[in-house]
Amino acid sequence: MQHDPNDLALARRLADVADTITMSRFRSHDLIVESKPDLTPVSDADRAVEDDLRAILAAECPGDAVIGEERGETGQSTRQWIIDPIDGTRNYVRGVPVWATLIALVVDGEVTVGIVSAPALGHRWWAQVGSGAWRSVGGGAPEAIRVSAVTELSDAFLSYSSIHGWAHLDGGAAFNTLVDTVWYSRAYGDFWSYMLVAEGAVDIACEPELALHDMAALVPIVREAGGVFTAIDGTQGPWGTNALAANPVLHAKARALLGSR
What we know:
It is a single chain. By secondary structure, the protein is α+β, with helices and mostly antiparallel strands. It has eight helices and 15 strands. It has helices spanning 5-25, 44-60, 89-94, 173-181, 190-199, 212-215, 218-224, 248-258, and strands at residues 33-35, 41-43, 65-68, 72-74, 79-87, 100-107, 110-118, 123-128, 133-137, 143-144, 157-159, 184-186, 204-207, 228-230, 243-246. An eight-stranded mixed beta sheet has the order 4-3-5-6-7-8-9-10, with helices on both faces. Strands 12-11-13-15-14 form a five-stranded mixed beta sheet, with helices on both faces. A two-stranded antiparallel ribbon has the order 1-2. α1 (5-25) runs antiparallel to α2.
């Protein structure tokens, strides 16, 4: 299937708007932070980003549906924009620069476009199906990215967000075994783990509990970089409730180990 390059261009413009808002509020003394019903934080910047992106989409793609972390789902269409205005809100509200806006487009059930924009880190990653995966650092020229060629768990670098969620899955025994098996592990967390996999800097990323908006934008970037992105049970793409990403060889080995829980 031929994918419309205008979709990627629009997604990039949305990311530019998001970057302007998030950076203007990052580390501001009057940032308003509230607790959502699930006890996770939300800032006025989260809501401002989503509201502005929704307004642009309503004007330019009025027939498209939108699924956002803060405002839920609006519209009915085979084209769905999925927005996580700030992935890593806990970092954002504490002044830690590891956070990003995630923007994805799903067409007929396939995630065709993904953008991860992390302006405080000076990094942006993007992909459109069939066009490769790319990274820009400091606003510089696009660089093609590729997953690593590591094939043994004992040589692999693992990244994750937190050990706490794994403790609810059979006491985290399988995850602990994976940590003990790999060469090295670090909790880079959230979107960053998966982008480091796409770049080949990290070999495996996994998390036990995720929502659609946490994952959708990551999927085409990992896949176009030559990787595999599924839930631990093998559900493809962002349609499960957790995530495992790696190159094809390590993905199969890590999934067999994590799936033993």
